[in-house]
Amino acid sequence: MRQCPESLIGYEHALLELSGVAAWKFFADGQFDFSPAMYDMFELEPGCTPSEIVSRYHPDDRNYVTRNLAKAFVTGGPVSIHYRILLPSGEIRQVLSRAISQESNGIKTVIGFNLDVTTQLNEMKVDLDEVRKFKFISENTRDLIIRYSSDGIFRFVSPASRTMLGYEPEELIGTSIFDIIDSAAHPRAAETLSKIIQSKGYPGPTEVLVIRKDGSRVWLEGNLRPAHTVFGELIEWVDVLRDVTERKDAERALVKALAEADAAAEAKSQFLANMSHELRTPLTSIIGFSDLLSNDQDISSVSRDYISKISRASRTLLNVVNDVLDLSKLENGALELDFTSFNPVRLVEDAIALLAHQAESKNLEIRFNREPPTCDSSACWLHGDDMRINQVLLNLLSNAIKFTENGGVSVNLSTQPSGEGRMLLTISVADSGVGMSADQLAKLFDRFSQADGSISRRYGGTGLGLAISRRLMELMGGSISVESEMGRGSCFTVKVELDMSEPVEESTRESSVNLASSINILLAEDHPANRELVGALLKDSGVKLSYATNGAEALAMVSQNDYDLVLMDIQMPVMDGVSATKAIRRLPGRGATIPIIALSANVLPGQIRQYEQDGFSGHVGKPINVGALFDAISSALHVPA
Length: 641
Fold this sequence. Notes:
By secondary structure, the chain is of the alpha+beta class. It has 21 helices and 22 strands.
């Protein structure tokens, strides 16, 4: 082996070593000179033989390398060779070699340089794999993949543009994304997208309405991502777009359906409010005057019986109205519970007493049983909505009496401790009436449903009572269940867990109150019969009563007189009660503080709350209950009831 000439170890050699390039020289007689980098590349030691060098060539590349070296000797070159080296460890190195022939002093040689490009080619292979993957995905996905510059010019468009937009990819490349955005229907989309693509952040999902080639519109949802150089400079934007037109159509349909449902619910609520008002207004006179006549000692027994029938029929109609309103409030989640302290024994006793006459008219006995360990009537107090529990109990008792011809009705009450400070209240109502089959029981608690269609013809009723009772009990966290056998009777059981409460002193009050004769009350009511009724109800109370037939008259009279209280109807001609109340509140002096009680057939909770916001001091619903009327007056005037 000849020694490496000085030309290879001089200044140029040093530069080659620093650049990572290995130098070599082959002589025509087979001898060679290697730079140190060449020995390192081939993992050989100085003094190796040519056959050892050839053994390092990859078996598949040996003929290729030797042939091209021979070619360099013959043609003079230059010759470029890309081959592989197989090292003893099994590692394969990729080598790029360039050779040229030269002759000096009659000696012909081939000199060349080797560069290890293994790392670069591996990286290129990774990049190529990624390119192949991207190409495969873009050509086979239904999503549209696009790349565009920061000014919105398309640089790449996947084949999905054909089906999604109706364009060939080549038709879009070089055009702007802003050209296909429907700016008329989506006016801010272009501005928003422009701000996004000029930024360097990750905006996340975006939605845009674009125009297809055939003029139709399609909603696209994209997920923009910026592409940067290694120095952090923005190169372009990559977006993956999906057709979400069906979803957007479904969303619009849902919004429309919700709006229609809200409108229907509002219409239903308005209808119920109007129905309630229109029915309660005449019932106010019917029930009120019937009660007044029934207290008249001078009427005959026949007349008294007629009046009693009128009163019962009108109250039945009022119960139907109340049931419909209760059901509507329960369905809308608008029914509010009013928790107070009550005695369950007295609650049951009062309910039985209220329906005792109805039972006696059918020669039925109502038995009341207190099952152990029910607490003593004077000491057992619970905290709950006694009015709603009483409503459920009255419904069950009324049904039991209605559907029982022989035998009797029994009410069983038990209260059992269910935890610290808690009590399980159980009330069951059993009868010996017609009973029900399994099929009838299955739909018993459905609204507007009765066990048998013939029942409503024989016994009357709307089929709302039990549906309302179940929902009321569920609202209180309780339950209602039934056991029945055709021809053997039925047993309904109500259970609810309530907090225990301290006993509350109960007060008793007559249905009329003796108010001071100096109390001056103004009644604003357009209906003559209602004016006469309120006058009759207050006749024995000792107050001085003045009348106005509309809100405008009431406003004028309050501004000119010193009244202690105003009873204000709501729906009146010229000026309604709400407008009149607001105007009175703006009057100087006592207008801002004078008690004003709304007399209205509008009894929904939302309506009552609105009256409070409009400046009313209280509310009495129609038909007017005399006790409620005196309670409201006494409360407003701070007079003990």
